[in-house]
C-alpha cells in the first residue's frame, strides 16, 4: 500500500503541505516543535483511526484557522483511491470526508482504503500500561486483518453501555432486574466472538513475536504473549466458537449480575480481559528493563505489520515517529530489514542518527511548512 500524493493545510501548525512521497523512505527532518509528528498524525487520521497520541478532534484544527483540509492518494494492488478530509470549527465540529468523491457518513470506510501502522515512543504502554491499552492494541490490530471484528467491538461497546446504564437504573429501582437477561444474551454473543477472535490473533502474534524477539535479543531471550480471558480457559478455545461458548459467557454475566447491579458496572466479560506479556517467563510489565520493554513493544508492532502483510498480500504504510534515533545500529537494521518493502515515513530531529544507507525523500519541516524537499 502506498500514499501517492499528500496535501494538508490547517492541521495543527501545518500549512500548505504538498508533496509526492517516495515509494520507500520518506525522512521528515526538523528541529523540535516544527510539525514533524503533526504531519504523521494528519496522515494517520486519514485511515479513520483516532489520533495515535490521544489528541482531541477539536485540537486538530490550527488555532488561528477555522478549518483544516487534507487529501491523499492511496494505491493498493487493485487501484488508486482518493481520500479527502475536511474539518470545520463551529458550535460543533463538522467533518466532511469523501472517498473517490463519494461523501462518507463517518470514518468507518477509511479503514478499508488505507491501512497503516505507527511506531511511537508511547508504544511502550502496550507493555507498561493498564490492561485496556493491551486490549485496544489487540482489537485494533485484529480489526485491520478482519473488518468484521470492528462491527463486533462496536456492537459490544454499545451493548455494554446499555447494560451499565440499565444496572444503574435497576439499582435506583427504575426498572426490573429481569430486563438485564435480554442484554446479557446479546452481550454473550458479541463477547464470546470477541474472545475467540482475540485468542486467535494473540496466538498468531505470539508465534511471530517469539521469532522476532529471539533475533533482536541475539537468541538470548524469549518473549511470550498469553491471552487471559475473563470467561474462557485456554482449552475452551480448542473448540470453535458456538452455542457452548455463548452459554458459558452468558452464565458468567449472570453470575456477576447481582454484584454488577449493586455497583452499577459490569465486572465480567471481555472488558476485563488481560494479555500477559512475559520475557524469559516473567512479567515484562513488572520486571522488564527499559531496553527489554522498548524492544518488546517494537517487536509486537513489527509482528503486527508482518501478519498484516502476509494475510493481505499487501504491506501497510509505516509511520516511525522518533523511534529510530533511540535504537542502536543493530536494532535499526533489524527494523529496516523487516519493513524494507514497505513505504515508510520516519521523523527525526537528527538525520545523522539514522543509518547512512537509509536513503529516500527528505522533507525538511520548519514552522509547519516544507522548507526543503530533496
Ligand atoms: N491546533 C494547533 N494549532 C496550531 N499549532 C499547534 C496546534 N496543535 C499543536 N500545535 C503546535 O505544533 C507544534 C508541535 O508540532 P509537533 O508535535 O509535530 O512537533 P515535532 O516537530 O514532532 O517536534 P518534536 O521533535 O519535539 O517531537 C507545537 O509547537 C504546537 O504548539
Ligand atoms: Mg514529534
Give the structural class. Answer: alpha/beta
Rg estimate, integer Å? 22 Å
Q: On the 0-100 scale, what is the average pLDDT?
A: 94
- Low-confidence stretches are none
How would you describe this protein?
The protein has 374 residues and is of the alpha/beta class. It has two domains: 1-115 and 314-374, Rossmann fold (3-Layer(aba) Sandwich); 121-313, Glutathione S-transferase Yfyf (Class Pi), Chain A, domain 2, CATH 1.20.1050.90. It has ten helices and 15 strands. The protein has helices spanning 36-44, 110-113, 125-128, 131-145, 148-171, 180-216, 243-263, 284-287, 290-312, 329-338; strands at 2-9, 17-19, 25-29, 67-75, 80-88, 94-99, 102-103, 116-119, 223-228, 274-279, 282-283, 317-321, 344-348, 361-366, 369-373. The strands form three sheets. The protein has a six-stranded antiparallel sheet, covered by helices on one side. Strands 8-12-13-3-14-15 form a six-stranded mixed sheet, with helices on both faces. Helix 4 packs across helix 6. The longest helix has 37 residues, at 180-216. It is globular. Residues 36-37, 321-322, 347 line the site of magnesium ion.
Amino acid at each position: 500500500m502506498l500514499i501517492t500524493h499528500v496535501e494538508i493545510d490547517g492541521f495543527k501548525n501545518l500549512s500548505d503541505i504538498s508533496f509526492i512521497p517516495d515509494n520507500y523512505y520518506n525522512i521528515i527532518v526538523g528541529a523540535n516543535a516544527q510539525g514533524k509528528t503533526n504531519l504523521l498524525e494528519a496522515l494517520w487520521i486519514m485511515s479513520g483511526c483516532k489520533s495515535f497520541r490521544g489528541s482531541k478532534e477539536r485540537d486538530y484544527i490550527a488555532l488561528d484557522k477555522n478549518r483544516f483540509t487534507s487529501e491523499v492518494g492511496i494505491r493498493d494492488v487493485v487501484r488508486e483511491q482518493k481520500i479527502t478530509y475536511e474539518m470545520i470549527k463551529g458550535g460543533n465540529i463538522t467533518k466532511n470526508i469523501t472517498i473517490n468523491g463519494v461523501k462518507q457518513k463517518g470514518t468507518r470506510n477509511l479503514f478499508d482504503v488505507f491501512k497503516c501502522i505507527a511506531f511511537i515512543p508511547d508504544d511502550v504502554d502496550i507493555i507498561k500500561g493498564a490492561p485496556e491499552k493491551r486490549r485496544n492494541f489487540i482489537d485494533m490490530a485484529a480489526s485491520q486483518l478482519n473488518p468484521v471484528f470492528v462491527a463486533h467491538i462496536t456492537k459490544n461497546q454499545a451493548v455494554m453501555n446499555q447494560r451499565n446504564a440499565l444496572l444503574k437504573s435497576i439499582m435506583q429501582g427504575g426498572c426490573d432486574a429481569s430486563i438485564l437477561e435480554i442484554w446479557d444474551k446479546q452481550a454473550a454473543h458479541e463477547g464470546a466472538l470477541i474472545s475467540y477472535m482475540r485468542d486467535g490473533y494473540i496466538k498468531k502474534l505470539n508465534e511471530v513475536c517469539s521469532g522476532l524477539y529471539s533475533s533482536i535479543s541475539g537468541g538470548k531471550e524469549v518473549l511470550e504473549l498469553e491471552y487471559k480471558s475473563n470467561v474462557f480457559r485456554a482449552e475452551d478455545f480448542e473448540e470453535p466458537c458456538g452455542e457452548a461458548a455463548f452459554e458459558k459467557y452468558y452464565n458468567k454475566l449472570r453470575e456477576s449480575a447481582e454484584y454488577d447491579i449493586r455497583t452499577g458496572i459490569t465486572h465480567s466479560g471481555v472488558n476485563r480481559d488481560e494479555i500477559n506479556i512475559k520475557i524469559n517467563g516473567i512479567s515484562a510489565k513488572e520486571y522488564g528493563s527499559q531496553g527489554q520493554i522498548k524492544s518488546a513493544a517494537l517487536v509486537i508492532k513489527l509482528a503486527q505489520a508482518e501478519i498484516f502483510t502476509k494475510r493481505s498480500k499487501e504491506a501497510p504504510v509505516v509511520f516511525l515517529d522518533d523511534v529510530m534515533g533511540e535504537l542502536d545500529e543493530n536494532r535499526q537494521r533489524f527494523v529496516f530489514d523487516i519493513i524494507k518493502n514497505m513505504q515508510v515515513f520516519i521523523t527525526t530531529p537528527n538525520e545523522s542518527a539514522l543509518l547512512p544507507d537509509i536513503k529516500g525523500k527528505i522533507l525538511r519541516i520548519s514552522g509547519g511548512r516544507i522548507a526543503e524537499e530533496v
